[in-house]
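User: Please look over both lines:
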Amino acid sequence: MLRVLTLSTLFPDASRRNFGVFVERQTLGLAAHPEVELRVVAPIGLPPFPLASRGRHARLGALPLGEQWKGVDVYRPRFLALPGTAGRLHAHFLTRALTPLLADLRREFAFDVIDASFFFPDGPAAVALGRRFGVPVSIKARGSDVHHWGSAAATAGQIRTAGKQADGLLAVSEAMKRDMVAMGMPAEHIRVHRTGVDLGQFALRDRNEAKAALGIRGPLIVSTGALIERKGHDIVIDAVAALPNAHLLIAGEGNYRGALEAKIAALGLNDRVRLLGAVPHGEMAALLAAADVMALASENEGLANAWVEALACGVPVVIPDVGGAPEVVTERAYGRIVGRTPAGFASGIAAVLSDHTPPATVRAGAERFTWEANTAGLYDHLKALVTSS
C-alpha cells in the first residue's frame, strides 16, 4: 500500500468550491486507487490580525481545521501570509506551520511520499518537510505557479532550488517541462503528467437548445477563467467588437471586473457581452454546450483544463501559443492558435465559425485526456520515487 500525503494550497473548500477543482479531481482519483491510502493537507494562508478578521479572510479563518471532503481526510492548517513581502516568506511560514501537524499525523499515518500539487509555496515547503521526515518529494508544475513565482525576484530562487532538490517533478505539458529545464531543473527528474477531463460530465449536447436556454441567437463565444489581467479577457472583448452579431459570455470573477465592465460599456457591447461571475464547475458543461467557440487569451498557461473541457463538449478553442497549446490543438478541427491580439483572436474566431466542424469531430481532441490515465501516471510516478528512495 502506497501512503501518500498530498500537499496543496490550491484545493476547494466550502467558501471556494471552484478553487483548484482540477487538483481536487486528480487527488480524488489517486485516493480511489486500490493500492493507495491518502491524506490531504490543504493549508490556508492568512494575514495577521486584524486583516485576518475581515472579508474573505474571515470566511477562510472560519473553515474547520480538519474534515472529510468527498470521502477524503483533509487538514486545513493556517499559515502566516505577510502582506507586502511579495511571497518571499510564504514557504518559510508554511513549513513552520506544517512541521508539528505532520509530526502528529505521522504517528497514525506513516506517509511514504509527499505529493506537492502546486509549485509555490507548496514545493519549497515540501522539500524541507521531506528532508525532515525522511521521505521523497514530488512537485507538480501547472503554469502560473512556475511562470509567475519562478520569474518574480522575491521567489524565483526558491522555485529553482526546490525544483533541483525534489526527488521527482511533474509538468502538465511538454512545454512546461522545457520551461522547467530552462530554469535549471533536471530533465531526467521531470515526467509529463497531463490533466484529465470527465467525458461524462463534459459531453455533447444540442447546441441550439443550450443557446435558447441562455436567450442567445447567433454565434456564441465563451471564455472561462478568473477576471485577472493575465487571462486576457480584454483581448477577447476587443475581438468580439469586430465580429458583428457575435455574443460573448465570460465565466469567472476577480479584481479586473471593473476594468472589463468599463471596456464593455465604452465599446457599446452591453447587449452582446456579459460577465457571468463565478459559475460552479458542475454547471460549466451546460454553458460550454451552447458555445460555437471557446476563446481564452491567457498570457501564460501550462495546459489549461478549460481548453480540454471545451473540446470534450465539441467546442473548438481559439488560444494563443502559450504552454501546451500545440499539444492540444493538434488538428484544425480542434481550433486555432493565434497571435495574442484582438485582430488575431477576431481572425481565429471567424475562421472557426466558418469551418462548421461537427461537434463529434471536435470531441475527439479531448479523448486523449482521461482521469484514468492521470491517476495511473501519478501512481506510477510516486511509487517509483518510494521504491528508489
In short: The longest helix spans residues 90-108. The longest strand covers residues 2-7. The mean pLDDT is 95.
